[in-house]
Amino acid sequence: MTELTIVQAINRGLADAMRADPDVLVLGEDVGVNGGVFRATEGLFKEFGGDRVIDTPLSETGIVGAAIGMALYGLKPVAEIQFLDFIYPAFDQIVSELAKFRYRSGGQYPCHVVIRSPYGGGIKGGLYHSQSSEAYFAHTAGLKVVIPSTPADAKGLLATAIADPDPVLFLEPKRIYRAVSGEVPDGDQRVPFGEARIAREGADLTIFAYGAMIPPSVQAAETLAASGTNAEVVDLRTLVPLDEKAVLASVEKTGRAVIVHEAPRFCGFGAELAAILAEKAFFSLKAPIQRVTGYDTPFPYALENAYLPNAERIVHAAKAVVAAG
Amino acid sequence: MTDGADVVPLEYAPDDLVALLGPDWSTTLTNAFRWMTLARVLDGRMLALQRQGRIGFYGPATGQEAVSVGAALSVGPTDWVFPGLREQLVALARGHSLTTYLHHLFADDLDPARGRQMPCHPSAREVRYVSMSSVIGTQITQAVGLAYGLKVRHDPSVALAFFGDGATSANDFHAGANLAAVWQAPVVLCCTNNQWAISVPVDRQTASATLAGKSVAYGLPGERVDGTDVVAVTSRMRAAVARARAGEGPTLLEFVVFRMTPHSSSDDPTRYQAPDFLQRARQRDPYLRLELLLRRLDLADDAKLAAWREESDVAVRAAIEVAEHTPPPSPDSLETDVFAPSGGPAPS
How many domains does one find in chain A? Predict the structure, then answer.
């Protein structure tokens, strides 16, 4: 075991994958000599050289389009989109091409591509360095969407993503890149997709969250415990594939659900979770579901702390759910 | 067989052809003509079948066959092709089965892609013909990425990316041409300028004098080629492929052709195209130009032309017969191939 931050764990994960498999390569803006603007690719250029750690021109559609071509050839590219806010020029390549190649070719042309991208608010990044747009991608059949919240999961899920024969969007909670550190198993320890993590056990209420919303959710659960409410925190880890079994099992146990994400509420991933609970766990629910989310606005710079869910808002929602039944 | 009176002839003498196509020039040209015959027969039959409601859609390549066949005759079996809408002849001339292609056109259960795409969007892995998308230009950056892989693996293969004049306005043309040159990737960017993006003429698409001229800004060689002259297409394509294979980097080739049919079975060009366009197009019909050349060089006569026509008619009729009697894809195939079979839990 080694104590690492999330960004260090990602860096180790990339280096391990590149050492183990010569087909793995990294491409993106500033990922080479500079080691990435968040230093996630630090040291890779020196160890693996410019053919495998590629500083690309400033073109997201070029990065993803080229990554698709590399994968069609048999390589395993890990593309970095510097901020998730900048992924939209590549949206066409991701949604129209990457996600559909296997299906539209009857399996002749799978795309072994990982796209890594830091996402989310809390770093004073304003409109264009803060968005949490996972729902667009989770809505697209053919893409897997992964969001770790701990260093161990970051490394273990990244290893699984790089080994996966299908496209994976790997979203990194940049707000806690360095704020969260923890023990990370050494060696090739993979965390499987589709298995949620119980971040905290509880019997009275389930808080569903992922990525950077896990720390405030756990903090809220601690606060609730002081007033006698025992909250369970479920870290979804992978939105696609979703661990529906774990989601339903937790609510069957607790009877109450609060869903937390920093993305806007309307058509956010929480809407899908709430629909699943309404369809499949309705008779276990003792009270209406509550969502604690960002607002249905663009992401604000000066008011980001008002925009982002925090422990206080989660506690408030949880108390309302408990009071309702 | 044809009235070639107005057709602009190809003026090559045998010595020119040796220089441009090599000592096997007569076989090359004869093969090219036979493949073009197949394409022409296919276009005629398939447009008719579409009108009869027997297939759902068709995108003919009439007028553009010299580009496809010239490309197919310029690459080897390990090279890769990223097609646009009208390059199916490249796959067929590289060995993709006509019957399999017909299964695709009928979107039946033996279509390798299980009928998931509209007709004329085949996928033919066995001849390294990449699954085609309807989205304009996205294949260009993909071809460059694949070519990057060839380069770093010291693989002597090359990639061809096909796209139309309209695609030169799309994001991925810019991104792809730029990346190709920065990476010196072994790729040939093949722009088939048929002068129309559905209803929009090329002079409304760009203010550039030529599309090949765009190469200057990207720092790669560009060349404008008469795409109705199969000799010119083949010799220039071979030169660009040889450059890429030798590690000398990418080339942009603009093949000027005439779209001699509607954009697709869903289009009516009388709404936007002046009648003289088709008159001019017929003078540069690549098929008739090659036919006249073959006749002049005594490589073809009426009997041979009729026999080649018959061989294509028979092949197309037989393939239609097989495909039309193949059942549609099984409903079970709806949810397969979204992910690899072991790729996580099935949707509930």
Answer: 2
